[in-house]
Amino acid sequence: MRFVSLLWRVWKSHNWVVFEGCQYQREVLRNQWVTPVEEWKRMRSVEEDRHQGRRQVAPLAPLRFPQGVSWVCSFDGAVREASHSAVGIVLQGPYGVVVRALGKGLADLTDPMLVELMAIREAILWCRSMGLHDVCYQGDAKVVIDKLLAGCAWDCYGGAVLREVQELLANVTGDVLRFVGRDNNRVAHRVARKALSLYPTLIGGFDFCVWLHS
């Protein structure tokens, strides 16, 4: 399956270069060719368990705010290989009520790690623009969040963004950053996927909050 997935990625990259005029990105091909296999295995496992009546999907637990936190801001990134990406950000107030939602497209940015880092940056700047403090920023990008919390440097072109995010978090003592699983971040994930599908017509003004409530 991995070999077939690799061939499929090579073929898709060929089509992007020849028919869409995109620039070939070896890093994208090398880093992401395994993803479809893992997703297929996970989906197949879920479907088999559901078919056999063994899997019961438990409801999500109520949102619990960390002590001293007034807002929870969830973020996520979505990537369309060799094309573009988008970020989704959701602001939740007391009792987990969605207050606002933001989706933003990112042109010519397809590195998943950097996209997740940009999602954190956009979430912080968005909340700061509204004058919000004591915010808990949460996402499911564990590697990126661990690097930020450990104060690590980044040995690639994302290093400048990493340092900027670290400085933004250090400037306000009431803000916190934490990792949550995908199941607890699926609202921001849906906003990111919707923003990805709307790009580049996103500039027209799409009310993500109304879309979520609908």
UniProtKB/TrEMBL annotation:
The organism's place on the tree of life at top rank = Eukaryota
> Per its UniProt record, what InterPro entries does this chain match?
RNase_H-like_dom_plant, RNase_H-like_EbsB-rel, RNaseH-like_sf, RNaseH_domain, RNaseH_sf
Q: Where is the RNase H type-1 domain?
A: 75-195
Q: Extract the GO molecular function terms from the UniProt entry.
A: nucleic acid binding; RNA-DNA hybrid ribonuclease activity
The record's listing under SUPFAM superfamilies reads: Ribonuclease H-like
Q: Which CDD domains match?
A: RNase_H_like
PANTHER family named among the record's database cross-references:
BNAC02G40300D PROTEIN, POLYNUCLEOTIDYL TRANSFERASE, RIBONUCLEASE H-LIKE SUPERFAMILY PROTEIN
Q: What is the protein name for this chain?
A: RNase H type-1 domain-containing protein
Per the UniProt record, the lineage of the source organism begins with: Eukaryota, Viridiplantae, Streptophyta, Embryophyta, Tracheophyta
